Amino acid sequence: MIVVKPTKFADAHLFVPDVFSDARGYFKETYARRKYEELGIADEWVQDAVSRSRKNVLRGMHYDMRMAKLAQVLVGRAYDVIVDVREGSPTYKQWQGFDLSGDNHMQVYVPKGFAHGFLALSDEVIFHYKMSAHFDPQHERVLSWKDPSVGIEWPIEGEPLLSPKDAAA
After folding, report:
1. CATH number corresponding to 44-168
2. Per residue, what are the HEC states of 103-123?
3. Helix (H) or strand (E) run with residue 165 in it
4. For residues 30 and 17, what is the distance between their CA atoms, to the nearest angstrom?
5. Which positions are catalytic?
6. In angstroms, rounded to a whole number, what is the distance separating the alpha carbons of residues 19 and 63?
7. What's the pLDDT band for 1 if we cut at 50, 70, 90?
8. What is the spatial distance between Cα 12 and Cα 114, in angstroms, rounded to a whole number?
9. Is 141 in contact with 63 (CB distance < 8 Å)?
10. Per-domain residue ranges for the chain?
11. What tens digit of pLDDT does each residue of 100-157 get?
């Protein structure tokens, strides 16, 4: 059974799938369409992606108004953040952060209209995303990780390691 945890946003959710652990390690299903549809997640996932980051890498805040994501950390630990970027929404520019790790197995469902990013907290982070639209640079937008009108409180030590695109946002 998948455990569902609420977020401050009606459309965003945290999920914890069943994890079967023993002396050898663990096994978990990271996605099963039927189970997620029963929980109200009916997106058609068309692309998966994996990123590998080292400590203090900050990726984001990226969004594509056509795209929902199901995101999780497979290895390591990250501070994951979502921001409502739907103009006219009662929660417009509000944010919430989550501690995701390979050990807590939490997944974040990021609905369409939300920016998403994370800060790598461990020496290595392997992050997995399912996406409901194919990546297209013409549709991708970037919200600055330090936008003062949003005010994300990152648990950062020193300066983050950013891509040129994220640094220019």
Report:
1. 2.60.120.10
2. CCCCEEEECCCEEEEEEECCC
3. helix 164-168
4. 7
5. 62, 129
6. 30
7. confident
8. 9
9. yes
10. 44-168
11. 999 999 999 999 999 999 999 999 999 999 999 999 999 999 999 999 999 999 999 8
Q: Is the peptide bond before 61 cis (omega within 30 degrees of 0)?
A: yes
Residues 126/90, Cβ–Cβ less than 8 Å: no
Residue 36 dihedral angles phi and psi, to the nearest 5°:
-75, -35
Q: Which amino acid is at 7?
A: T
Separation between Cα atoms, residue 51 and residue 73, nearest integer Å: 10
pLDDT > 90 fraction of the chain, expressed in percent and rounded: 98
Both tokens assigned to 45: 């996932």
Q: How many helices (H) and strands (E) does the chain have?
A: 2, 13
Can you tell me the distance from the alpha carbon of 148 to that of 54, in angstroms, rounded to the nearest whole number? 26
